[in-house]
Amino acid sequence: xxxxxxxxxxxxxxxxxxxxxxxxxxxxxxxxxxxxxxxxxxxxxxxxxxxxxxxxxxxxxxxxxxxxxxxxxxxxxxxxxxxxxxxxxxxxxxxxxxxxxxxxxxxxxxxxxxxxxxxxxxxxxxxxxxxxxxxxxxxxxxxxxxxxxxxxxxxxxxxxxxxxxxxxxxxxxxxxxxxxxxxxxxxxxxxxxxxxxxxxxxxxxxxxxxxxxxxxxxxxxxxxxxxxxxxxxxxxxxxxxxxxxxxxxxxxxxxxxxxxxxxxxxxxxxxxxxxxxxxxxxxxxxxxxxxxxxxxxxxxxxxxxxxxxxxxxxxxxxxxxxxxxxxxxxxxxxxxxxxxxxxxxxxxxxxxxxxxxxxxxxxxxxxxxxxxxxxxxxxxxxxxxxxxxxxxxxxxxxxxxxxxxxxxxxxxxxxxxxxxxxxxxxxxxxxxxxxxxxxxxxxxxxxxxxxxxxxxxxxxxxxxxxxxxxxxxxxxxxxxxxxxxxxxxxxxxxxxxxxxxxxxxxxxxxxxxxxxxxxxxxxxxxxxx
Length: 529
Prior knowledge:
Helix content is 32%, strand content 24%. The protein has 529 residues and is α/β, with parallel strands linked by helices. The chain folds into 3 domains: 1-83 and 162-178 and 192-228, 3-Layer(aba) Sandwich (Rossmann fold); 94-161, no CATH class; 277-352 and 437-528, Rossmann fold. The model is unreliable at 244-268 and 523-529 (pLDDT under 50).
């Protein structure tokens, strides 16, 4: 650990409060070329600390130093001029501008007062190559990208600048393993050049792989710290929550043995063969991202969609739900006579579908509104109205029960959703759909950027909701999550479903190898199409 004189960055007694204390007397040091990982439950203060360092917030008390000099950035631009950059968990690109413009938004190259497009595209190409987005069109509006690609774009924009200190807040939450490996290669180069990094993540395997030291926050206080190699799940979870990582009376799920799998999208597991079919998707096409999808969900079944970034998983859920227009194919839903694809989310909800979108803040929640308003959005239960008037007392009791069921941690259900942590915002969104009469729920990255406790709670709630008569389709970039939650795993490559297998018959390496092999085959055939 460096001292103040030799540290790249350090802080002493750093404190911040909003309605309640968020950071309390934080003391940390970071040497040149060192990667410090921050762990902690939602609301522990990790993102707040990062935002203070990056100039997005002001600390109430305490001091910071950058290479031994007092450091108190007035704003984000001031911090960037001093070589401090941040990649935030919630993405901040401008959807109407293209890829190249977003990469260099605050420093566009110009000539004679006009943007030098040729120079801009040359710089953008180099920045994208660093994160493996070589084939991304530079003139494509960012609003048309999936969240995984936007995450890589956010990272590319930060890596393209000269950094003395880089803060990464859940940078891999929406990335698949090959993209994570490419990112880590780039971070290793920055480390060799002396860039210090604060790395916020909930993935212990990544932290042990990339970080030098770990500091764990709970309720705004550092509760444990040490070498990254010394931390295992038990120690981390206990420091984060004060509870054991493995609940009493339970055992970890045994690792399955991989078996040989053919290139097929036919179901290989007959455990659900006698269950009613709730959702059947055949040859669904929604160009350019969804090229041919076949999918089945039976009562009591959880289907996990796996694939690399850009494989079309998010777009598939949106096409099934009617948020994006499908050109061809059929969508059969139990109790619905028509088989043609749904034309709108309204039609999907009426047909018995629900959807938790990937970007909860932009597409799922009304951030300034209360928990009550967000949970009851779109559906008012019988008994919550009387002669056309809302019964606010009954409505509040119903939402309070729903919030307790999903363990939403809040002051009360009148609290604005924008003031909640990311994990609690996600629980609010899930609580909304628990009130609906959906037979099948489509969930995109359900635990992206949330802590171990919140993740366990959401998994439990979703399993209980499915029971024996509902179905769930889950997209996750975390293969461990799919193996923990899903009964059947479907692999997507280049907008196509290429494999469907029972979870117990495959392992993560098998799926990744198949996805990469098929992607390479698809790319080799692409010029012939």
